[in-house]
Predict the structure.
Amino acid sequence: MWDYSDKVKDYFFNPKNAGVLGEANAVGEVGAISCGDALKLMLKVDPETETIQDAKFQTFGCGSAIASSSALTELIIGKTLEEAVSITNQDIADFLGGLPPEKMHCSVMGYEALQAAIANFRGEEWHDDHEEGALVCKCFGVDEGVIERAIRMNKLTSIEQVTDYTKAGGGCLTCFDKLEELLAKVNGELVAEGLLAEHAAYRIGGSDAAELKAKAKAKKEAEKAPAREAATSPIAPSSPLPPPSAGMTNLKKIRLIEEAIEELRPYLKKDGGDCELIDVDGNNVMVNLKGACMGCQMASVTISGIQERLIAKLGMPIRIIPVKSTH
């Protein structure tokens, strides 16, 4: 399991500035629920001074995504757009006392949402700096611009780092050759600009696709902690959670689960998927995933996001189990 800082845990369980900002005049949206993470950043900007007076967010994803989004709002409130535009994903991670390498993509998502919101305020449309349609990782919908920007901004020098920061290559790995090409190209540019030592630069053939895939598989297996360990997860509260009977009836628990899933369904449908509650057995929640949510690479991240949302809403360990519909 990953080692989360106390600040990450605090900003997940007690997020600052979460919710809808009715007076927003700048909005940035990035990601897609079907790919596991999505963020909507809303800003209230003074038109005369261009000072960010307020900021709120709505996010779907893991605890690190929620914490990173919350941290971003704390960083930008009170700043001018000129000051905010220079904030990087590393600034977000540093504010939280660091993020596990595997979760750095959450801070990258925050950076992109901020850029999109600032562009929206200025009447522009934020585009990645690449040719339209240059999709690299189909599993997670990651394009060239996102990858190249992450490599350059964070001076990444390995395929594993690229996956940690962008999710690209975290699925079937058919994009391996293109990732190698982009990493070697941007590293070469950084060397030419004197921003990276030549010996540290990545070269084609520096990684083995089969070995990376085996590592990724082993990592995923290690992440599948059994339900009995859920309460001791590094992102769980330090004190044991009370059983449902101590403060919540089964009926209330089921209603909260239904509410949480119904809140997410419009976003899932927007991305071509859906989720239906089938049954609740103790802390096991059976759901039926439909459409895009059923994709072999997408399903696990969608389930993870739904599970995190339910844990936050109910305040107890919950395990999502995908099943077929009974009708």
Q: What stands out?
A: The longest helix spans residues 250-270. The chain is about 45% helix and 15% strand. Residues 71 and 95 are 7 Å apart (CA to CA).
